[in-house]
Design brief:
By secondary structure, this protein is of the alpha+beta class. The protein has three domains: 143 residues, no CATH class; 227 residues, Hypothetical protein af1432 (Orthogonal Bundle); 73 residues, no CATH class. Helices cover 49% and strands 11% of the residues. It has 20 helices and ten strands. It has a five-stranded antiparallel sheet. A five-stranded antiparallel sheet has the order 9-8-7-6-10. Strand 2 and strand 3 form a beta hairpin. The longest helix has 25 residues. The two termini are 37 Å apart. The relative contact order is 0.07. It binds fe (ii) ion (2 copies).
């Protein structure tokens, strides 16, 4: 049964999907990681002998037993901000467990190895130790030392940097990513505050918006690429950050000054906060909504505006954005806006960002459109749903193939759009990731303007955009 034993020292870059030719092993690895993270979280809240902790450890143990059917040790490695199972990158988990990775790094852990004899007691002791503050660990002699004292022999930790590759990419990208995931944490926290009737940390929201305004000012292409990060399970949090990025990028094209961008950004970030008040069963329903459910769903803009109005320090125009983001350019959306002939400029900006991000994300009731398909929808509804001028500016900004789009070139190679060429919106710069035979390659950037000259007889360098999910491809690591 065990077909994985020989997979030792393969190249880091070599086909990670191929490696998991047995899909079950990947599933086990994912389950195991999920239960590891859940146990760690539970033990940070409850005492170790609490029923919840006992159940979490039990759950982990069952998953580890399942995993042991495949291999007799489990090696998790951290390279930069990414998680690897042995030599194989786990792109999805690198995103999902971003804060866990950061925490392990702060505890000086560069990798964790779990060995077959691992007992629940060893596991519990280990989790308690890594839930201890870094300073306290250092005072008590360091993690490795404490593990030895506690008799934890079936978990080995690697020193930080053990698995680091040579320095990766330019400096801007990783820290823009950090801003992105920090923003996701903040919006989660804000939603939680609304749910528990606490006052909103408006300052934190402002800090997130301020950081993104800076990013967009420095290098809007790099930040726009981040807006192609999506989460199926946690749609609204990731969606809010993407709408923030897209709105700021569009606003800065007009151009708006910094203060206006702050007001626009706050409204964009918080536009869907009213969804906290909508039952989960409606939000995640797979089939079409009944008319009663649809009426409830349509209350989220007004509910969001109510929540924001009650917070001191939120600008009235940010509140207005939450209220108007579904009202449409022609006022045929919801809620009905009777008193004026059009919605405010900032609401029109956020509306485009909102619809674009929603269309390009898989939802329980829809497949994701590719970015160029989504742009075609915006064009079709110019002048009715959307402000036509803003749609034009949006297309100028995104190009015909927006940053983050998976494309197939005329040469047969696959790549991800990396940067627009102002001179030719149909010929962006592309990061190649697969050769014409479909084999994974060391990513390298080609400028399609040059490629186009060479193969003009083909009629364009980009042949088509593709949906990464239908190909089982995860593009996040390439952004
Ligand atoms: Fe909404
Ligand atoms: Fe939305």
């Amino acid at each position: 049964m065990n077909t994985e034993e020989s997979g030792g020292s393969a190249d880091w870059k070599q086909g990670s999907l191929q490696y998991f030719h047995s899909k079950n092993l990947l599933e086990k690895v994912r389950e195991l990681l999920k239960s590891f993270s859940a146990a760690k979280k539970t033990m940070s809240i409850y005492p170790v002998n609490h029923e919840m902790c006992i159940r979490a450890v039990e759950d982990f143990r069952n998953n580890f037993d399942d995993y042991l059917m495949w291999k007799n040790s489990f090696s998790l490695r951290i390279v930069g901000d990414e998680l690897f199972f042995e030599e194989k990158l786990l792109p999805r988990e690198s995103v999902l467990f971003y804060s866990l990775i950061q925490e392990l790094k702060s505890k000086e852990i560069g990798g964790i190895n779990l060995i077959a004899g691992l007992t629940p007691l060893e596991f519990t002791d280990f989790i308690s130790l890594i839930n201890t503050k870094s300073e306290e660990l250092a005072e008590r002699g360091g993690l490795a030392n404490l593990m030895q004292k506690a008799g934890i022999h079936n978990i080995l930790i690697d020193e930080p940097g053990t698995w680091e590759e040579k320095a990766t990419e330019e400096k801007l990208r990783p820290s823009a990513r950090e801003d992105y995931f920090n923003a996701v944490d903040v919006i989660r926290e804000l939603a939680d505050q609304v749910m528990t009737d606490r006052r909103l940390s408006v300052n934190k929201a402002n800090r997130v918006v301020g950081a993104m305004v800076n990013r967009v000012g420095e290098n809007s292409a790099a930040v726009l690429g981040l807006a192609s990060i999506k989460s199926y399970d946690e749609y609204t949090s990731y969606h809010s950050i993407n709408v923030l990025i897209l709105s700021l990028a569009l606003g800065s094209m007009l151009p708006l000054d910094r203060n206006s961008l702050m007001v626009l950004g706050t409204g964009a970030l918080l536009h869907d906060l009213g969804k906290v008040a909508i039952p989960q069963a409606i939000l995640s329903k797979t089939g079409p909504l009944t008319s009663a459910e649809w009426r409830i769903m349509q209350e989220h803009p007004a509910k969001g505006a109510d929540i924001l109005l009650a917070q001191p320090g939120v600008h009235p125009i940010s509140v207005l954005i939450a209220y108007e983001h579904h009202a449409r350019y022609d006022l045929k959306g919801y809620p009905q806006i009777g008193a004026k002939d059009k919605i405010s400029l900032f609401s029109r900006i956020v509306e485009i960002a909102d619809v674009y991000d929603a269309m390009t994300t898989v939802r329980p009731y829809q497949k994701a459109r590719t970015p160029d398909q989504a742009i075609r929808v915006l064009v079709k509804d110019m002048g009715t749903a959307f402000d036509p001028l803003l749609v034009k500016v949006f297309i100028d900004m995104m190009g015909l193939f927006p940053v983050g789009t998976l494309v197939k070139l005329a040469t047969g190679e696959l790549g991800i759009v990396y940067e627009q060429n102002e001179a030719d919106l149909a010929a962006p710069k592309v990061k190649l990731i697969r050769d014409r035979a479909g084999a994974e390659i060391e990513p390298n950037i080609v400028d399609l303007i040059h490629l186009k000259e060479k193969i003009s007889e083909v009629g364009g360098a980009v042949l088509q955009s593709l949906d990464p999910q239908s190909l089982g491809l995860d593009i996040i690591p390439y952004l």
